[in-house]
């Protein structure tokens, strides 16, 4: 199974930590709109940014990933 960034997990973790999107954005050097875009799945963060998000939320990056079934290759 492949792993993909899970925007809902990011949103839930940020809210649970009580961190406003603007504060998280500042911590990773991005805009609040960009954080919102990560949370809604509009865009996916790079591996480095995902690691920064996890670090800012005191999480392991794996906690922001979800397992997705891989497509069969014919």
Automatic annotation (TrEMBL):
InterPro entries per record: Cro/C1-type_HTH, Lambda_DNA-bd_dom_sf
PROSITE patterns in the record: HTH_CROC1 (PS50943)
GO molecular function list: DNA binding
Stated name of the protein: Helix-turn-helix transcriptional regulator
Organism: Streptomyces luteolifulvus
Domain HTH cro/C1-type: 10-64
Pfam families: HTH_31
């Amino acid at each position: 199974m492949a792993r993909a960034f899970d925007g809902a997990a990011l949103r839930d973790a940020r809210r649970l930590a009580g961190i406003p999107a603007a504060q998280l954005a500042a911590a990773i050097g991005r805009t609040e709109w960009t954080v919102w875009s990560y949370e809604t799945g509009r865009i996916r963060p790079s591996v480095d940014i995902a690691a920064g998000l996890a670090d800012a939320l005191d999480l392991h990056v794996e906690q922001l990933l979800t397992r997705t079934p891989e497509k069969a290759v014919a």
